[in-house]
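Convert to structure. Protein one:
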Amino acid sequence: MDFDKKYIQEAADRIMIQDLLGRYAFAADYGRGKPESWAALFIEDGRFEIPEISMVVRGRSALTKFIEGLHRTVPGLHHVMSNFIIDVEGDRAQGKCELNEFMLRSEAIYNNLQAWYEDDYVRVDRRWYIEVRRVHLSDDTRSVASTGKVGEYFYDFFEMCKEFVVP
């Protein structure tokens, strides 16, 4: 079986993008005190969006501020991504994956969020970056994250997010 260069390059690109996403999760979950390591995974004017709440965080400075707020308001989060779909076209790519987020508390481990990411990636100087990452939340997920015990834990996070909501 012969594989041409394009096939091998696209396979390598998919692996590199999955590595980028692994670094994203580790920086979000364990990067407390190093918020710039998470923001550096985005291009300079990259965006993190939650369309269902009209939230847009644009640029590395704002991304750094956002992840600092996440670490401050909801410590103990763990992002688990799966079922990756990545389509590569030259130096650009689009991807989707499922997100399950867990929150560790002394009384329990909560499965507080089930959602999916929809991403745009760009390669700059042989390295892949996130251009736009959109988190899509179902109605059920929004309900779980904003009510009951989980809602109590997420209250400060949602208050912090208001700074990034666009009218």
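Protein two, convert as well:
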Amino acid sequence: MQVSPEMRAAWTQLWTTGDLDSLPQQRAAGLLAPLESTWRRFFSSFEDGARLLDLATGGGEVLRAALAVGRNFHLTGVDIADLSAVSASFQTSKIELIGSTDLAGLPLPDCGFDGVTSQFGMEYADIEAATREAVRVLANNGRGHLVLHHRHSVITQGIINNLAAEHSVFSDDDTFQVGRQFFELKACSASTEAIKGAEAAFRRSVAVLRSRIRNEPAFGMARNVVGFLTRLAEVPDSLPPAEALHRLDFVKRDTEARRLRKQAQLDSALDKEGVRRLSTALTNAGAVVDPARELKYREGQLMAWELSFCKRAGRAQ
């Protein structure tokens, strides 16, 4: 399965913002203690000098969990996105980050790692190829641990709600294009009549978007975007036309990339059959796989799947 340039760019865009936490609101609310405990237990089972690989490392959350154990690990992270911004966030030479790399074809040696991890990443890839690669680079008797999106988790339900909210606000909408036409006319000093007509059209289009916003958490990101468009429509002279055009294009790209990531997350979330297929793929690649477990919040709601495995001794790829 080829990763599209659009998808690669969407993930790169996320990690270049400097917000390297995939669940910042839940972490800020102290809800991720079960997930943090999972990684602390796993990394604490390795000795100093262990070679550990994190697949689909993203903002490096799992690598930071490994560093927090305080042992002299040799850490490597791989991701489909460009990881330049993530690399700059680490203040240690103990970590090697390899960006723009598909999990289906790792540029890493056979049996090179004592442990392999992935948090909300392996399930996005070509499962058959990615599991073969994960086991190939794992040393004999090496161990792996995966945290995977659950089809019925709180996280996935939140994505469903977000996508539905954004669709209800922006479906069949051309407000960005209407705004662009307005500021292009301003930039080229068109007639006053033409500029006023375009400005009125932009304000009407933004007003339609505002009317679709509901006072519900799922509308948070849509509300932010509409807020930006509202400020631009109400005070168009607050920015030079060229800067207004630049910001319109940036917000439009950011909105489209966010939707693409959310849809990919929804499509990758695993039900029981999906996690069974992933377990079977690991087994076929030469791993001994423990039964999948459901990771839950302290209140009992579903967070994710957990899957642990080890590589059978003598299984060279």
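The mean pLDDT is 93. Strands lie at 51-55, 74-78, 95-98, 113-119, 138-148, 287-289, 293-296, 302-311.
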